[in-house]
Fold this protein.
Amino acid sequence: MMLPLFVCMTLLIGCTEKEKFIVYGSPQNEAELESVLKEEKSVEKSTVIQYDDKMLVAVQIKPLKKWNTTKIEKKLQKKFDEKYPSKEVFVSADYKIFYEANKIKKDQLEDNKLSKKITELQKLAKEET
C-alpha cells in the first residue's frame, strides 16, 4: 500500500526542476546569454543581472567540478568579454555573490539602486573571507 505512494512521490519530486538560468535586467539578449552558459557543462545554475553597460554573472559550479572553480570562472569571463566587449562583465562562482544576485532578482530593485548594488557585489567578491 505504501510502496506505490512512495514511488509516486519520488517521481513527482524528481520532476520538479527549478530555474537554472535566470536573467534579470534588460532581457534583450536572454537566449544568447543562456546558450553561452549552457555550453559550459560545469555550470549548474546561474543568475545574470544586466544594467546599462554592467553585467554580473553569478554561477554555481557542479559539485565534482568545484576543484576547477577559478579556471571555470576565467574561462567564462573570457567568453563574456569576447561576446560583449562594450559591457563591463563580472563573473563569479562565489556562493555569496550568487545568493545576493538572486536576492536582487527577488527584491526587483529600481534602476538607480541596481547599478550601485552591482558595484557593491563586485567589491564583495574581492574581499577575502
About this structure: The two ends are 51 Å apart (CA to CA).
